[in-house]
Amino acid sequence: MSPNENKHALATSESLRKSGVLVHTIGVTMEMSLMHLVEIATSDNYVWPGVDHELLWMLKELEKQPGDINHSSQTVGLSKL
Fold first, then answer.
1. Domain count of the chain?
2. Is 60 helix (H, G, I), strand (E, B) or coil?
3. Per residue in 32-46, pLDDT tens?
4. Does residue 68 have a pLDDT over 60?
5. Domain range for residue 48?
6. Burial of 10 (0-12, 13-18, 19+ CB in 10 A)
7. Phi, psi angles (nearest 5°) of residue 7
8. Mean pLDDT over residues 65-73, rounded?
9. 25 close to 43: Cβ distance less than 8 angstroms
């Protein structure tokens, strides 16, 4: 991830968090450190360092849940996030 992509990802995630969006990060490649995933996510509770089919299913179900939280999907930066 380039420095510009990094700045964009952090700024976008901050804006989303301030508007009430829960930002999850999922580690799909080894190109991003765990600390960077934590920086982008709402909190370390929303960091998924590895991904499998069960985890993806759980996240899709979470998106469907009603509530006061704005559930949305948005890709920040590149698909490597």
1. 1
2. helix
3. 788 888 999 999 988
4. no
5. 3-64
6. middle
7. -60, -40
8. 55
9. no
